[in-house]
């Protein structure tokens, strides 16, 4: 065989593509359901095969050569997946249930691009209550998956017995409308001053409790300006000037750019933007092998990785 047309083992290419897509060895291992040492070995073997580094060992990021190679091989890997589906005479099918805020404010505006990339796929998005148990929704078939927000404090319990991959760990911070900020008399002096401000709650005060703990602010009681059950509802109330809501970039859309909402920035103490949880894509063992989910999972992780690099 002409050495110019030798290609690396598919397992190495698949491992490298998963690493490039997810941005980490362990995330790639979780996606492919293999040990992280296998991903490292495949990437290392591929680098030896190509004769150039694909990953910066000091930062964990792709090198320029790695990014270029990933961009070039991705259409071919997608083509292999699509050709396999075609020869099996299968139309990829997937129903994704998703927490309301992520569905409406981040996922829905981007779905047209996914549909254009996969026009033959039967895809349905169904926003659903974030507090509904996975199996209680009837989502057990192999053509179903779920996107939920999982707080760090209950991740193990929530994801037990399911296949999952972290989509993103967004920073959480308080926001308020310009009218609400004017009613407060401007930005607070310290973070502790928020304990005397109108705070909008979801189901309860647990998110605020976690946030104040992350800010190292003691908070025995959390003032409540209203309980609104879900994050996208607290944001709607914040836009209406009813108080301060906790949010993250996946829920805000263009609120900050347009000035509909403003970040709370105390004058004396900075806000620590530590994540409190993750958005997670999850399904059953059978569902994880679904071709439609594989296409959607790859696209979803690529979108978030691209926006993280651009932002």
UniProtKB/TrEMBL annotation:
Keywords: DNA-binding, Transcription, Transcription regulation. SUPFAM superfamilies: Periplasmic binding protein-like II (SSF53850), Winged helix' DNA-binding domain (SSF46785). One of its GO terms (molecular function) is DNA binding. Residues 8-65 form the HTH lysR-type domain. Signal peptide: none annotated. InterPro entries: LysR-type_TF_proteobact-type, LysR_HTH_N, LysR_subst-bd, WH-like_DNA-bd_sf, WH_DNA-bd_sf. It holds the Pfam family HTH_1. Coiled coil: none annotated. Belongs to the LysR transcriptional regulatory family. PANTHER family: HTH-TYPE TRANSCRIPTIONAL ACTIVATOR TTDR-RELATED (PTHR30537:SF5), HTH-TYPE TRANSCRIPTIONAL REGULATOR (PTHR30537). This is LysR family transcriptional regulator. It comes from Acetobacter persici.
